[in-house]
Design brief:
The chain is an all-alpha fold and 98 residues long. The protein has a domain of 61 residues. It has four helices and no strands. The radius of gyration is 31 Å and the shape is rod-shaped.
């Protein structure tokens, strides 16, 4: 195993200024304005989906009304809106700010 000799730097080389790359300005926010706009849109879609899925009040709690419980709005429309809201939220997070 060969070792390399240790060389001393001259005093002039030690004091020579080192060229540094200019620092890039750091963004103030993690997301851009458009990302936040899409996040708000996604949150509104999610809230609408959860609102539509919420239960309706029955006039008589002793009577089971299957038309209210199994309505197409609760079974189909609300889950589609919730999934769409999550897709919009994922898009808003993954979108690169300009």
């Amino acid at each position: 195993m060969k070792t390399q000799p240790i060389t001393k730097a001259t005093p002039a080389a030690q004091k020579a200024p080192v060229a540094q790359a200019p620092a890039k300005p750091q963004p103030d926010f993690l997301f851009g304005k458009e990302n936040y706009k899409w996040m708000i849109i996604g949150a509104v879609i999610l809230a609408l989906g959860f609102f539509l899925m919420a239960g309706g009040k029955s006039p008589d709690p002793n009577v089971f009304n299957d038309n209210v419980i199994y309505s197409p709005v609760r079974i189909t429309v609300a889950p589609i809106l919730i999934i769409a809201g999550f897709v919009v939220e994922i898009f808003a997070i993954m979108k690169k700010p300009k």
